[in-house]
Amino acid sequence: MDQDKLKKLIDLREEAKLGGGEKRIATQHEKGKYTARERIEMLVDEGSFEEFDMFVTHRCRDFGLDKKQYMGDGVVTGHATIDGRVVYIFSQDFTVLGGSLSESFAKKICKIMDQAMKMGAPIVGINDSGGARIQEGVNSLAGYAEIFERNILASGVIPQISAVFGPCAGGAVYSPALTDVIIMSDKTSYMFVTGPKVTKTVTGEDISVEDLGGATVHATKSGVAHFRADDEEEGLMLIRKSLEYLPQNNLEDPPITESKDPIERKEDFLNDIVPEDANKPYDVKDIIYAIVDEKEFLEFHRHYAKNIVVGFVKFNGQPTGIVANQPNYLAGVLDNDASRKAARFVRLCDAFNVPILTLVDVPGFLPGSGQEYSGIIINGAKLMFAYGEATVPKVTVTLRKSYGGAHDVMSSKQLRGDINYAWPSAEIAVMGPKGAIEILEGRNISNIENAEEKEKYIAEKEQEYKDYFANPYQAAKYGYIDDIIEPRNTRFRVIRALRTLATKKDSLPPKKHSNIPL
Ligand code: HXC
Questions:
Q1: Model-level pTM?
Q2: Does residue 70's CB lie within 6 angstroms of at least one atom of ligand 1?
């Protein structure tokens, strides 16, 4: 081989690796950010990354861009392994023209998305970009749309994980928005459809980048981000962790790992965790940590709609999705945000064959005009739809309250819940004693004039109602609950249920697709 030819290859590779050059790399570091290639190196198994299309450049000749050519054109693409499993990756390079998206840039991303689909492997996208490359005009817009279409077609086929470690603005936000998991780095990333300047011009609102679309906003207020990472290192760890619970594609099962946590581990404190007083809260996460393998819980949307808790755990090594009402926050009531959050998570689990454990302690749907005007009917229906449609194994444990419509929604037997357990503290009824007695005894109560007698009468009636309805035995009598279990045995019972359901086969009637109330 002619040594010059080899040298040329080596030199070109070195040039490509520098992206927009050393000065811009230094600026990136000064902002507390890593470069596109550093991020990939930190994410994947050592030495496993193979880069594609390093020699691609843009084709734009306008606005002086013919003199600004960078090898790789602002995005690093290729494949690698994470924990030995193949993933396809694109990582936008802000050092090249602000990571802005050109036609060639889009083609590079589309190429690896197509390969990921053919190979049935997850795709990870790391976003850090000034958006559409302004000089390329409609070609850039078309490039985005090519990516969006692939995101849509890949949805439910291969896991798609997005990290946002810098700007992600305008229509560019819609690629991450179409994926399964969004992770944002705190203080160094932002996402918005319209930035602060245009916002000020159009609406007069004066708002900072961080307050409009920073990681905190999207992790707490909008729910756009599933995770707010303290820094990029944590963000990359969260990508790896999310993939640990997911299969390579929808035709595979999630990987079962070996667990050293004893299957029959009993947790005595669970027998007393639910307070006698039905209005007293407790933290459902104490129950989750107590029953899962090694106390490991990858919580999604930790800071958003905290009245419901969702995330991935393992039971004897079997990846499982948990959905749990949180009595510690708004009494665990179902509202618009909680319903949408849980519905999206149930569908993620169902798409990728992850069984679902539902822990129920729900007083009902949140009443009021605020909720009704924001569409609690449609949003509650989303959660019901998601559960009713899900064909993965579904195990439900009712811990305490399970009232009204919320009872039906939370993976009840009739929504194809496979195994439904209740703790002895469960109260499964149309509504709580107070509301029920107000309705049933309203006339009698108003006829009693003496206040003391009135109070006594109400207390007696409420107690009667409680004795009759506020327990799991009515539901068990009709077979809506399969068994009433001792709380301390919950881990073992859930593991045995999941093992029994491992061969479950269920399907939906033939259709083009459902019409979930979006
Ligand atoms: C071309 C761009 C660019 C873009 C940045 N650059 N964004 N070049 N197209 N969209 C270039 C800059 O000119 C600069 O080049 C280099 O990248 C670094 O940018 P700076 O502005 O110096 O960096 P910084 O101060 O960190 O600011 C980053 C930024 C800002 C906030 C992202 O660059 C910015 O506001 N960019 C424009 C964002 C935007 O409006 N994009 C279009 C959104 S609409 P030099 O050579 O001077 O260093 C959209 C539609 C998508 O994306 C539609 C899909 C359907």
A1: 0.95
A2: no
CA distance 462 to 432: 9
Give the distance (Å) from ligand 1 centre to CA of residue 139. 16
Q: Are strands 227-229 and 483-484 parallel, antiparallel or unpaired?
A: unpaired
Share of the chain residues as helix, strand and coil, in percent rounded to the nearest 5: 45, 20, 35
Nearest residue (by CA) to ligand 1, atom 5, is 98
pLDDT at res. 238 = 98
* Rounded distance from Cα 98 to ligand 1 centre (Å): 5
Any catalytic annotation for residue 171? yes
Task: Report pLDDT for 473.
Answer: 94
Q: Which fold has domain 3-244?
A: 2-enoyl-CoA Hydratase; Chain A, domain 1 (3.90.226)
Known catalytic residue at 406: yes
Tokens of 260: 């050293």
For ligand 1, atom 19, which residue shows the shortest CA distance?
Answer: 98
pLDDT, tens only, 57-81: 998 888 888 888 899 999 999 999 9
Mean model confidence pLDDT for the chain: 96
Q: Spell out the domain ranges in the chain.
A: 3-244, 268-426+471-502, 432-470
- Pick the catalytic residue from 154, 342, 351, 406: 406
From 25, 127, 134, mutation site for ligand 1 pocket: most ligand atoms within 8 A of C-beta? 134
Strands (E), 3-122: 50-52, 75-82, 85-92
**What is the pLDDT, as a whole number, of residue 433?**
86
47 tagged catalytic? no
Q: What is the dihedral of CA 181, 187, 192, 198, to 10 degrees?
A: 180
List the structure tokens of 312: 């991935």
DSSP string, 57-70: -----GGGGGG---
405 is catalytic: yes
- What dihedral do alpha carbons 465, 468, 471, 473 form, nearest 10°? -160
Cβ–ligand 1 distance for 127 under 6 Å, the answer: no
Nearest CA to ligand 1 atom 41: 131
Q: What is the CATH number of domain 268-426+471-502?
A: 3.90.226.10
Distance 135 CA to ligand 1 centre (A): 11
Q: Both tokens of residue 242?
A: 């999310």
The residues, any chain, with a CB within 8 Å of residue 322's CB and separated by 6 or more, are 288, 292, 297, 309, 310, 311, 312, 313, 356, 357, 358, 359
